[in-house]
């Protein structure tokens, strides 16, 4: 990135302009259930074209000093159309927008149904963002309603009083969005000013990042308006246990707006049959002969989901209100031993991938055709799992994981935590808040079997001990039902965070970043890696990343780096060691990466990272077939499914 520095002059970045933290409302209430249409709730997606303007003023602060939120954005100066959801970086032909750092402004004008504004009591109207990267401030009809830090989790605001106090039914939504990363954001970054005037223009700066994917920015996930009654179901928490022929669904329900007159629950199977009922804000539902939630390729009916209908009735101002919310529920258990990862009491081996939310043109914007294509490729591949590297993925993706039985290691945006200052209390407090948001969002998902709090931090630094002990303990307190890990590339003898994880997740790139081109070192080095980690910690191990870049269509025999043959050969060397160690304590392997993805420009990156087994356009490289043969073989060995189901035939 190369842009005029805000505030002028080299020196410390003037954050009040570049990353402007304004006093405002907190982002969202305690519950924030995923919006759904129910008999008592309506939702309206606001996708499509929004008005857009980048603040190109020297200080990036014109939008605030001129109060662009007070009037339609088109009246403040030139605007362009911008699709939502999408990253803004690749939409235009403007190179300055491709690499823009600072504040951009979005606006959408919508008309609300009158029924949303009328009644006594009138319904509650909520504005919700699936995610926007990185720091957001939102106004409705010129009134600030919410601000939120973080680019990968939802936030919302109750805008009822604002829209009912405005003339007509017009709702003008204005968003100021800043993609600047600092040492205390998650992920972290830093602004570097170039003070040598003989080499750089005045006020020249760059955004430095310590992670290997492009820092796409924009409104990346759906924006939704939805309604609830004035008294409503705010949150539902579900945990499940099972033994023999009985399962228990423990629940807690919170209500806001009034004390509920009645609160009833019904659990229905996929045929609509009620299998258990309950009442009250907390309790247990007992299910006889339950259909358990099983991972893909571990059962002939993976991803089985029940429907939990929660119904509340409450008196508000002498009027009886009813709210209904339906939550998908999968009944499954997770347990970790010193050598195994158990799902429903049976050993589970992760044979999966790491991914990115990344594609041509739309960047990190949610795209349904791409999502469905990716899941079809995962199932074709025989993959039973993935890690949300390196940030929480969209709720729409997580919904399909629940439904298809794809197991998820749910990772926070804690990538690139390398500088000592990123281990301080300011960073720590934000990291704790992010884990609260992530657990709040995904706590009820059966597909999520483990939390990952970070990827490849500088965990060899002494402050990492207190930092990760605190983050992991906090995550376990939020959700005692799941194991917690972080992904390390540190030396086993120097890692200060590893003592606190439940599962060791280790990344290594032997014969790529280390001893490049020397495939013959992999057996010795990978074997030593596993043995050293296990001897030290006596915990199961996942190879959470491994791989090699390959340029599609580049061939070499004997295999040379960047050829498709080298990628194949490297995978086979790793697999030979995996096959020995998965008989002992290695419980998984996740290839880096599912598909090629965009990165910052650099001398080692030719239009992005090429470690995908699929191209960025989702076409298979030769390595995809190596991995497919392996994953289906593993599935056949460990599954009790009929051979016709676990064959290489595609049954989608």
TrEMBL record:
Its EC number is 3.2.1.31. It comes from Regulus satrapa. Inhibited by L-aspartic acid. InterPro entries: Beta-gal/glucu_dom_sf, Galactose-bd-like_sf, GH, Glyco_hydro_2, Glyco_hydro_2_AS, Glyco_hydro_2_cat, Glyco_hydro_2_CS, Glyco_hydro_2_N. One of its GO terms (molecular function) is carbohydrate binding. One of its GO terms (biological process) is glucuronoside catabolic process. Keywords: Glycoprotein, Glycosidase, Hydrolase, Lysosome, Signal. Residues 1-27 form the signal peptide. This is Beta-glucuronidase. Its main location: other. The gene is Gusb. Belongs to the glycosyl hydrolase 2 family. It catalyses: a beta-D-glucuronoside + H2O = D-glucuronate + an alcohol.
């Amino acid at each position: 990135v190369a842009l005029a520095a805000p505030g002028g002059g080299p020196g410390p970045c003037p954050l009040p302009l570049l990353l402007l933290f304004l006093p405002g409302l907190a982002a969202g209430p305690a519950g924030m259930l995923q919006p759904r249409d129910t008999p008592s709730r309506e939702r309206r997606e606001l996708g499509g074209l929004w008005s857009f303007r980048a603040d190109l003023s020297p200080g990036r602060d014109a939008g605030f000093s001129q109060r662009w939120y007070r009037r339609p954005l088109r009246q403040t100066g030139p605007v362009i159309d911008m699709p939502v959801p999408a990253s803004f970086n690749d939409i235009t032909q403007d190179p300055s927008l491709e690499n823009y750092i600072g504040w951009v402004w979005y606006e959408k004008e919508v008309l609300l149904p009158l029924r949303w504004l009328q009644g006594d009591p009138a319904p509650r109207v909520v504005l919700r963002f699936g995610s926007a990267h990185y720091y957001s401030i939102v106004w409705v009809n010129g009134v600030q309603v919410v601000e939120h830090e973080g680019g990968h989790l939802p936030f919302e605001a109750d805008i009822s009083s604002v829209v009912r106090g405005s003339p007509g039914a017009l709702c003008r939504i204005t968003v100021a969005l800043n993609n600047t990363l600092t040492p205390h954001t998650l992920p972290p970054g830093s602004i570097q000013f170039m003070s040598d005037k003989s080499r750089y223009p005045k006020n020249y700066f760059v955004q430095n990042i310590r992670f290997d994917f492009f820092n796409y920015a924009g409104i990346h996930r759906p924006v939704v308006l939805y309604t609830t009654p004035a008294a409503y179901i705010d949150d539902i928490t579900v945990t499940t246990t099972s033994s023999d022929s009985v399962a228990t669904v423990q629940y807690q329900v919170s209500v806001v707006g009034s004390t509920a007159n009645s609160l009833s629950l019904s659990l229905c199977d996929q045929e609509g049959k009620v299998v258990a009922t309950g009442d009250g804000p907390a309790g247990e539902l007992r299910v006889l002969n339950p259909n358990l939630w099983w991972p893909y390729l571990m059962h002939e009916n993976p991803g089985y989901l029940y429907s939990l209908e929660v119904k509340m009735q409450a008196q508000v101002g002498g009027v009886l209100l009813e709210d209904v919310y339906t939550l998908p529920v999968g009944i499954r258990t997770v347990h970790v031993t010193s050598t195994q990862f158990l799902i429903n009491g049976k050993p589970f081996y992760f044979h999966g991938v790491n991914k990115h939310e990344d594609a041509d043109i739309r960047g990190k914007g949610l795209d349904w055709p791409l999502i469905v294509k990716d899941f079809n490729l995962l199932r074709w591949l025989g993959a039973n799992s993935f890690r949300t590297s390196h940030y929480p993925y969209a709720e729409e993706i997580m919904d399909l994981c629940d439904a298809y039985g794809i197991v998820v290691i749910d990772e926070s945006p804690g990538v690139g935590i390398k500088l000592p200052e990123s281990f301080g209390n300011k960073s720590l407090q934000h990291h704790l808040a992010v884990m609260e948001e992530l657990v709040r969002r995904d706590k009820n998902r059966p597909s999520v079997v483990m939390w990952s709090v970070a990827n490849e931090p500088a965990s060899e630094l002494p402050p990492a001990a207190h930092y990760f002990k605190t983050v992991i303990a906090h995550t376990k307190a939020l959700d005692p039902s799941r194991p917690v890990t972080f992904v390390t590339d540190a030396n086993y003898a120097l890692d200060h965070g590893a003592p606190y994880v439940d599962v060791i997740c280790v990344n290594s790139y032997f014969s790529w970043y280390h001893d490049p081109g020397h495939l013959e070192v992999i057996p010795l080095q990978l074997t030593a890696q596993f043995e050293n980690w296990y001897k030290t910690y006596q915990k199961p191990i996942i190879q959470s990343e491994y791989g090699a870049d390959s340029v599609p269509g580049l061939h070499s025999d004997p295999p040379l780096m960047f050829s498709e043959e080298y990628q194949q050969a490297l995978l086979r060397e790793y697999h030979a060691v995996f096959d020995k160690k998965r008989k002992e304590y290695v419980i998984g392997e996740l290839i880096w990466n599912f598909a090629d993805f965009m990165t910052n420009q650099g001398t080692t990156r030719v239009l992005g990272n090429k470690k995908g087994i699929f191209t960025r356009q989702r076409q298979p490289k030769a390595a995809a077939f190596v991995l497919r043969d392996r994953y289906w073989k593993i599935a056949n060995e460990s599954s009790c499914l009929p051979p016709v189901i676990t064959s290489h035939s595609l049954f989608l």
